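As described in the Methods, two query proteins were run sequentially through the folding procedure within a single session, without resetting any intermediate state between them. The first query and its resulting structure tokens are shown here.
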Amino acid sequence: MSNSRKTENILSVVHAEEAAEEEQVDEEPQDSRPIIEEECGETVQCKPLKAHLDECTRRVEAGNTDENCSVSFDIALGVEELFHFMHCVNDCTAPKLFAQLK
């Protein structure tokens, strides 16, 4: 077998593998989780928690914290408020995501 024929065999195999990889990328489904989470964050149940989190965030950024916003190690963080909001969003999101599983 000549060197040019060996080269042709290698190149055609490499080219075929690249085409197969591109096809696999096109077949992947879109992740709907971020969209569902955003919708759940705007529900009647989660909206008040989001408003409280936003208010604490505003106070923390301004340097004005009080007992209404959680504080950790002299650095003001709305960690507790974030956890409450994310818990609400996750409770809303999980059943919708599992309903989409095949």
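Immediately afterward, the second query was submitted; its sequence and tokens are:
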Amino acid sequence: MKKILLIFAFLGILFEYNLPVISGASAISSESIVLQKLIHRKEAVKRQAEAATNRIEEIEKEKERAVLDMRTLMEQIEEASSDLMNIQSKINAATAKLLVTEKQLETAIHHADERNVQVQSRVVMIYKEGYVPYLDVLLHSASFSDFLQRADSLLFMIRREKELFEIAKREKRIVEQKIDGMERLLSELSTSYNELTFIKKTLQVKEKNKEVLIASLASEVEELEELTEEQEAFLLEVARTESELLRKQTASGSVKFAYPLVKKARLSSGFGTRTDPVTGKKGASHKGVDFAAPAGTNILASKEGTVLVTDWISGYGNTVIIDHGGGVWTLYAHMRSIDARQGDNVKKGEVIGEVGATGKATGNNLHFEVRVNEKAVDPKPYLGL
């Protein structure tokens, strides 16, 4: 859409530029109007191009930040994946250990049950038969010492059965505690695994969003770069048309410049050949006009433009050169002081320095030139003199 608008804008200007010419005066007027429109359009497109360039720079910075964020997210996802693998390994190991421990519990329960059955059998036998078997053993003793020995043996057997039963119960409790601990560990590991899985999924969503953002920014940059290329092409075409219009106007002397001094001064030397006032050489070329003015008189920019030169130039002394576009320059020489700076955008009538006598000068004066495509032309038609 922006491309179409640029094309139509330029076609509109060209249409106005190619209006039928009725008379010389009307042609000059028409060209002046078109030139002004070209200048305004050019400035507007320049601003648009600058805005697009600035936006591209902002997007590139934003894209760099997004890429850095994405790298961080990828590192975090990788770290979460590693942690998940570690937790999964621990879960697998704990599960395997739990299975072994459960088998140990089964064995311990079996042993305890066996001991319990043995003890219960003894109790039942005693209940049914009393202590007869034990008494038989004691009554059939050969002697009193044999009796005591047999009694000790019976007591030992009873204590031993009781101890074995307690050991079996204790082993069962220990195994049960191990299983409880393993189940708690598995529960904690499972919770950690679920939390890390959620974190990883969240990070992956963020990563996907960053990918979409980076792709969107890249697409916007591509569109803006295409637009800036179109704007540059448009500006180039405008500059060519503007240059052609200025060439026609300068050829006819219709381009008007402001008087370059704050007040009128005597024209002390004209454009063309003359006798050099310093060397006395006859037929010397004079590429501008000289205005005899008191030292310190303000020198004004004859037209808006960009300052190209603010320097000492041999023969010219302190010199300012301003580019007015379309290949048209103005030159101001022999200045006592310079107020403008290279690169400044000056307005028509803006003070750029003071009259002096620097360089090859016989007195205080302003040497003023107009150059079209670097070729000096007579400034008087431009100043309406």
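Residues 144-252 form the longest helix (109 residues). We note this only descriptively and draw no conclusion about the first query from it.
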